[in-house]
Structures are given as C-alpha cells and as structure tokens.
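Quick one:
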Amino acid sequence: MNQEQWTAVDDYITDQFALSDPVLEAALESTAAAGMPAINVTPSQGRLLAILAQSVNAKSILEIGTLGGYSTILLARVMQPGGKLITLEYVPKHAEVAQANLERAGLTDVVEIRVGVAMESLPQIAAEGHGPFDFVFIDADKVNNPGYFEWSLKLTRPGSLIVVDNVIRKGAVVNPDSEDTYVQGVRRFNEMVAAEPRVSATTIQTVGAKGYDGFALIRVNGN
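Output:
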C-alpha cells in the first residue's frame, strides 16, 4: 500500500457514495485559488464528521479552525432545525474565503465565523452564554490542543461529542523526544484526555488522500 493507492481508494469512495457536490467543489476550488493550504478534511472524512454530528442530533456545533469552510458546510448542513454553528478562524483571509463559501451554500443564517486567536475567543463564547455545544470539531494549530480540549469540556454537556483531527502526525506521535511542536501538542493533549475521568475516548488511525494521520473521538460523560 502506498499514497497513490490510498488516494485512488479515496476517490473511489467519493464517487461511490456521492460525497461531493458543486457547492463543496466550489469551496475547495476557492480555497486553492486563494493560495490557502490544502489541509481540509477529505470528502470521506467530512461525511464521517457529518454522520457523527447527526448521531448526537447536534443542534449547537463549535468548530475550532475554519480554513475555507469546507467542513463547516458539511456540519452546518446536518444540524437540527434551529441550530447554530460557531466557527473560529485565526487568519482573516481564510475567514473571508469561508464566508463567501458559506454564502454560496446558503448557510450564513446558521453559521457565525469569529476571527481571532481561538484561545481568546473561547472564553468570550463562554461569557456570552453560548452552549452547551452538542458537537465540537477541533482542527487548528496542534500546539494549543490541550487548551482547546479544556475549553471544549467547559462548553459541552454529558453526551456531547468532541472530534480532534490530525492526532497521529504520520506516526510521529509515538516519539516522546520529537522536536516538532505540533507532535508535542498532540502528546500533551493525549495525556490530558487519558487522565480525564469525565470522558470516554479513543483514537482511530486513518490513511487516504491526505496521507497517514488520525482522529481522536471523545464522548463527554459528565461535567
């Protein structure tokens, strides 16, 4: 097995299950045209996120890391009627592209993009009384994953689901001596989750068009 085959299988899955459409394709194209990194979830991963959000009947969703709004669109589409999604993005240019993509998708009435440092936005969201969130998707800078997890616990309820992307780092997560700050951020996050009695968690390794990585799946059992 190699990257070429992983990508071919992803393409097959995307076609077989009709995981893309013109709105999603336009979101990817606009992201690329803006020179933004191609680090969005794949169509099959995006469908997984949507199914997980549906499984908890999510009406309130928090996303940390918007990029071009690809996963935002997928999650917003499956929210319960009357739902709201708040997504946090550090880079203003990314937020502008995402806003345009959300307008094209007809979702601006249910999605709010907040621009700025997520670790500053999260306490503001709490102070404003938002939440509890039924579903949280964390896909931002991995250095701050421990802080994102702490705030996610504060902003969720028993039964909520927290999903964290890119937690395998091509297998580098097993190296305690790694000098990669993202690897160390993921390792600290893993240690926090493992020691947290209020959650049940696991990590699933993935391969596909984006290479070798994985998701952490965390169910909140109590607060």
